[in-house]
Amino acid sequence: MSGSAQKAPKSILLIDDDDLIAGSLRQVLQLDGCDVDVAVDACSAASLMSKKSYDVVLVDPYLTGGVHREEGDLIAHIRTQQPRANLVVLTGYGSPDLVQSASAGRVSAILTKPQSVVFLSQFLVAASSPAAMTPQLSIKGQPA
Q1: DSSP structure class, residue 13
Q2: What is the tens place of the pLDDT at every residue in 124-137?
Q3: Among candidates 26, 33, 28, which has minimal Cα distance to 10?
Q4: Domain limits at 75?
Q5: pLDDT band for position 102 (cuts 50, 70, 90)
Q6: C-alpha count within 13 angstroms, C-beta hemisphere, residue 101
């Protein structure tokens, strides 16, 4: 028997109500060996987070159904339920509250939409490594 232990798959939660983005990203991440769950609203995200720990949580805080008016509360809720997760925001809409949450250390990175699925998957896999857990804010747009 070999002495090397098998690594657990990276556990990633995608919270986005855009089925095309979430579904495509889930497929690519699963091909990379990640364990991926998808929530389309804050309620289903809360349910998933109460049952499992994640390495990375990607969230679009401007979900439909009124949640977009409470993006700070959604981020705070994720941070409370997943304190060890690397929290990445993916949004097409910036706000002073969102930037304030990020600079207060509750968000590791803010990515602006649109992003390619390939870029997002590479970013999330990198963000799931323990070295990526150091608090540092980065705001990234579509790579050139």
Answers
A1: E
A2: 988 887 655 444 44
A3: 33
A4: 11-140
A5: low
A6: 24
CATH number at residue 114: 3.40.50.2300
In a domain, 136, yes or no: yes
Number of domains in the chain: 1
Residue 104 phi, psi (nearest 5): -80, 0
Amino acid identity for residue 10 in this structure:
K
User: Does some domain include residue 3?
Assistant: no
Q: Which residues, other chains included, contact 116 with Cβ-Cβ below 8 Å and sequence gap of 6+? A: 142
Whether the predicted pLDDT of 38 surpasses 90: yes
Q: In what order do the strands lie in the sheet with 11-15?
A: 35-39, 11-15, 56-59, 86-91, 109-112, 138-140
Phi, psi of 35 (to 5 degrees): -95, 115
Residue 69: inside a domain, yes or no? Answer: yes
